[in-house]
Amino acid sequence: MYQIIKQILRTGIKSEAPPRPDDTLRDQVQMINTQILDYVGRALAIRHVDAGSCNGCELEIHCLNNPYYNIEGMGIHFVASPRHADMLLVTGPVSRHMELALKRTFDATPDPKLVVAVGDCGRDGGIFGTSYASCGGVSRVIPVDVVVPGCPPAPLAILQGILTAVSRRA
Amino acid sequence: MRLDDFPKLFPKLHGAMPVWHGSVDAEGWRSLCEQVLRGGGKLLALWGEDRSEGSSDVQDSNCDSRYAVHIALVTAPGLLVLSLPVDQDMPAFPDLSDLFPAADRMQRFIADLLGLHPAEGGDHRKWLRHASWPANVHPLRKSFDINTAYTTEADAYLFVPVTGSGVHEIAVGPVHAGTIEPGHFRFSVIGEKVLRLEERLGYKHKGIEKRFEGMTLEQGARLAGRISGDTTVAYAWAYAQAVESVTHTAPPLRSQWLRALFLELERLLNHLGDLGYIGNDAAFSFGFTQFWILKENLLRLNSELFGHRYLMDCIVPGGVTVDIDSASHSRVFNALMHIETGVTNLKNIYDEHAGVQDRFITTGRVSPDLAAQLGLTGLAGRASGQAWDLRAQFPCTPYDQLDVVMATHRNGDVAARVTVRFEEITESIRLIRAILEKIPQGEIVCTPGRAEHEHPGIGWVEGWRGEVLVALHTGSDNLIHRLHAHDPSWQNWPVLEHAVIGNIVPDFPLINKSFNLSYSGVDL
User: Are B95 and B121 in contact, with CB atoms under 8 Å apart?
Assistant: First the structure.
């Protein structure tokens, strides 16, 4: 125990300031009532869905949980079921094999809900495009509020996308 | 034909790795595989090809047979790649799943995407095909247009039923509880003990191999780096090797050292991340936060020095796109020193923590015998006595000057896979230091020449998870006719099904994380 406490003290506090929301990331009219945002924004539950990524975006989403970005410290946490979620964070081109699972996950998420599409592939299919096996971007399958481009987008960019989705339009 | 004769009978392919390629008939195919198995060799990859040109369904007059299956076998002198022509009218090839159990899913993949079937034996259920295209459609045939879309319906797949008093099923996925890739796990359990696990993958199939077809050799590099994002360096290097083989290109010496630098950085990143997550899955979140600070520091250094946190697109055919100046060496040395100190402290804490060790030791055990029989590979294999590491056994430049020490253990449990990671971190830190001390000056990239027509090229790299193979078949005009990318997860996913038997269901996430296999790399 002594070693653990010593290591924690030696490490200190690593958390950095979060980014500002960015209106240019908005994809369409926000589905959620802006009055509700004031509440959701302080305690947001996110369900991540990998709909067919190369797993690069997942690496950066993992990083959001590290002490530098400290997403839980902001009241945002990842939950194990869409039924507990306010927001879906979706990566990848949506593979045709994940199309149904993504739709079902969206339906299982209680209203009102938000969707953030992550990465160039989440935006429009990226390098994998549209094909017999890929539906393309996330918005081809479910409605999307905010898109975060990048290959993969850095954790700060993903965090900015999340914060944009839960903020009022400037 | 005797196995020992192949280096004399078959031509050696140009390039960095010892690879021989030859064509055989069905009898030679089985016989050589049997000899490889008896001689202690192993199956690396199995893939199929439609050799016809363009999109017409008529037989191409230039081809003896319209189809072919190819196999890559690891033998004492190096990699043996065999090609077996397959008849258009009788699209079957000899089953190998009795020799190499790992061949089973690869054969089902060939059946789904090319319509070539193992003649007898094996599992004839579909694998990568769910319900997005009909059974009589085979997307990797040249007559299939990549943009053909069928309506998706619900998938019908027969899991092996487990019956008996008190047995029940737990179905998990494709959408999992954590931030991980999609796949389906069907557990048959009694109480909380796992009797059987059956995996159903293929959810991420996004047509990568079809997408490669018709790309130029230059265009393919970017896609190769996105087959499995966490292994982007190893895939990019393997792809570059394959292209350099078919174009007879020798990348500048300095670029080869930089490639090894990137590969070891990738290994460090993944091992640090895994050690954190394995701690987390043993309910020790302290481990996660600590290891992920170390990982984040290294990611930021990568971004500053090389322009990308995961080093995507840094390796291209002909060399690398980014260099390191000597002033930056000290920054890397500094970072390594911090990682070394941090990892030493954390290893002591993991070792001394009774709760963590209780979860690690004897959990998810794969005995060396079982590992050898099933072909467990890479870092998971090395934790179960399978002493294979390309960097030590077939070292290309610069590994031939670095004397890589392979980490091997025999316990085969989560604890052993953790120990292998700790030891490989130490070794990678040593390698990175040695690389930066010895790296020669010079150019970092050259322009690859023109590719030979209808020629095979192989790339073979020891990624952090295990051996990555890129098999390239060129068409005309520097275009890719067929590309198969092979992830070590093909071998290791089926072994995970065995590793969990007799363990409790709540230990599955921990066991799974200790393997950390790629879904994207095998769903393609």
Answer: yes
Domains along chain A? 19-165 (3.40.50.12280)
Chain A window 111-170: which residues touch B at a Cβ cutoff of 8 Å? 127-134, 151-152, 154
How far is residue B470's CA from residue B238's CA, in Å, rounded to a whole number? 6
Entry pTM: 0.94
Contact of A47 with A79, CB cutoff 8 Å: yes
DSSP per residue, A42-64: TSEEEEEEESS--SHHHHHHHHH
Assembly ipTM: 0.92
Residue type present at position B132: S
Pairing mode, if any, of strands B193-200 and B184-190?
Answer: antiparallel
- Tell me which amino acid residue A154 is: A
Contacts of B304 (CB under 8 A, 6+ apart): none
Q: Find, among B264, B311, B261, B234, the residue nearest to B428 by Cα.
A: B264
A70 touches chain B (CB under 8 A): no
Chain A: give the shortest CA distance to residue B369, in Å.
32
Q: Which of B155, B174, B518 sits opposite A55 (nearest CB)?
A: B518
Interface touch B203/A52, C-beta < 8 Å: yes
pLDDT digits (tens, 9 = 90+) for B380-425: 999 999 999 999 999 999 999 999 999 999 999 999 999 999 999 9
Asked if A55 lies within 8 A of B181 by C-beta distance, the reply is: yes
Domains annotated for chain B, with CATH where assigned, are: 3-118 (3.30.460.80), 252-317+326-438 (1.10.645.10)
